Amino acid sequence: MGNVHGHTVDFNAEATLMHFNLLRSVGRGSFGKVRIVERKDTKQVYALKYISKRECIRMDALRNVFRERNILESIDHHYVVNLRFSFQDDDYMYMVTDLMLGGDLRFHLLRKPYIEEDEIRHWLAELACGLGYLHSRGIMHRDVKPDNILLDEHGHLHLTDFNIATHFNQNRRITSESGTYVYMAPEMFTGKGYTHAVDWWALGVIFYEAMYGRRPFDAPNNDALKRKIRDEQPNFPSIGRQGRALSIDCIEAMMMFMERSPERRLCCGAEGWRELRRVRFFEDINWTKIENKESTPVFVPDSERPNFDVAYDLEELLMEQEPLEARPRRKTDLSRMSKEMQLIEKRFKTFDY
């Protein structure tokens, strides 16, 4: 038991915001924000994503939030940012996940002058293991990009942000144009549907971006960008960032991930992600250690320096109109709520791992 603002807190009961100490803010999305929290009874730290119910309804995004929460409840893997608790109060929906202190991959791609082939090789191996797990569960991520890949303090990579992830099966193709355009695969713009192969293309774009310091396609607007991705072949120069020569094995692996035909794309055959074991670029990888998360990362984030935007916490403190605060729920008649609010009450279930 504990006491918060005069209210008794039962730590054996379903999780609520009162079970956590609110620490610094570390990020935000279109209708969700993220901050570090500490469980009061265990002192374990987590990341708390909190989503405004009203903003979510206004943006017609309830279905995405429900889908993300349900997908996260169904998975648990060491290369995924796993859900640990979910709950709601009168104003917000909350998802408490593993905390990653190493920052996102975008931060490191921008800060490092170049990426060693050993670094990208290890990153891709871990991400492939994580994607392989998701695909084995019938889940395609659809938004694999550096911003949605988080590093822990040891340098291991984890997939996050399942906001537009979806379930799939081999007998049904998905047709919606969901994702971030520069990482979307050519088949997503043909109108003929696509499969989980789009995640492997996105991994190839990340590979390309890491080695060349730019994306494979550039255009003045989204329509032109979609046409380029759909119709053109990327170029694979032999020289990468900072004038560094790339190995033939590295370039060949990039080309295999960015194969325009989904059927011939790397990791899209019968063996799935295990096809990587036969690719020369990955021949030095100890796959048993990768699968068990026992490998030693080549790159380790600097623990003496912040691995995210240090200005964000102050900005959030000054600009947030309704600071987050733990308070007991109001007793409200469900029948007096809007249909959307009723749906949230019914669909956004409490979860405790």
TrEMBL record:
Keyword annotations: ATP-binding, Kinase, Nucleotide-binding, Serine/threonine-protein kinase, Transferase
GO MF annotations in UniProt: ATP binding; G protein-coupled receptor binding; G protein-coupled receptor kinase activity
Every Protein kinase domain range: 20-282
KW Isomerase (keyword) present: no
Domain AGC-kinase C-terminal: 283-353
A Pfam entry, by short name: Pkinase
PROSITE patterns: AGC_KINASE_CTER, PROTEIN_KINASE_ATP, PROTEIN_KINASE_DOM, PROTEIN_KINASE_ST
Domain of life: Eukaryota
InterPro entries according to UniProt: AGC-kinase_C, Kinase-like_dom_sf, Prot_kinase_dom, Protein_kinase_ATP_BS, Ser/Thr_kinase_AS
Record GO biological process: G protein-coupled receptor signaling pathway; regulation of signal transduction
Binding positions for ATP per the UniProt entry: K49
KW Kinase (keyword) present: yes
Family in the record: Belongs to the protein kinase superfamily.
Protein name, per record: Kinase-like domain-containing protein
Organism of this sequence: Syncephalis pseudoplumigaleata
